[in-house]
Amino acid sequence: MRLGLGGILALIIISCGGDQTFPVDGAWLRGGVSGDHFGIVVMLLRQEGQEITGSACFTSSGHLIARDLPVTGRYPSMTLVVSDGHYTGRIISNDTIDGLWEVNGLQQPWTFRRASVSEYEQCRNARP
């Protein structure tokens, strides 16, 4: 069977256009940007099958705000709930989780990047 150029292009598009999956396991960090009033948030995530679980830690100006906050979800989405607010995100690439932080009816985009486990531990072990 011979494929013309159009057939070859169609096969490439079909094989590359499928659903991509990205690894979730590991630490993820957002914040640390000058003028950001939310401080630093670090999540330590694990994926088993489609289920995502983990914990999160918040610091501001180096001081612990909260730790061991549960993160749950079903690939590719996850949710983090903090008293009066919540974050809902999706993994969109090998090194990016993108989503929205919502609190008191206000929304702010939050983007997480890959981090090291030591960054999570540093956050978790910060002093209040």
Describe the structure.
It is a single chain. The protein has 128 residues and is of the alpha+beta class. It has a single domain (21-124), classed as Lipocalin, CATH 2.40.128.120. It has helices at residues 5-16, 117-124; strands at 26-30, 40-48, 51-60, 63-74, 77-82, 85-93, 96-103, 106-115. The protein has an eight-stranded antiparallel beta barrel with strand order 1-2-3-4-5-6-7-8. The longest helix has 12 residues, at 5-16. The chain is globular and about 40 Å long. The model is unreliable at 5-17 (pLDDT under 50).
Q: What is this entry, summarized?
A:
16% of the residues lie in helices and 54% in strands.
What does the average pLDDT come to? Answer: 86
What proportion of the residues is helical, as a percent range?
10-25%
- The number of helical runs is 2
Per CATH, the architecture is Beta Barrel
Rg, Å, rounded? 18 Å
Q: What is the N-to-C succession of helices and strands?
A: HEEEEEEEEH
Q: Under the CATH scheme, which class?
A: Mainly Beta
CATH superfamily, by name, is Quinohemoprotein amine dehydrogenase alpha subunit, domain 2
- What strand line-up does the widest sheet have? 1-2-3-4-5-6-7-8
Secondary structure: number of strands: 8
- Identify the overall geometry: globular
**Residues in β-strands, percent:** over 45%
Overall number of structural domains: 1
Unreliable segments (pLDDT under 50, ≥5 consecutive)? 5-17
Distance between the termini: 69 Å
- Kindly name the structural category: alpha+beta
Largest sheet: 8 strands, antiparallel, barrel
CATH T-level topology:
Lipocalin
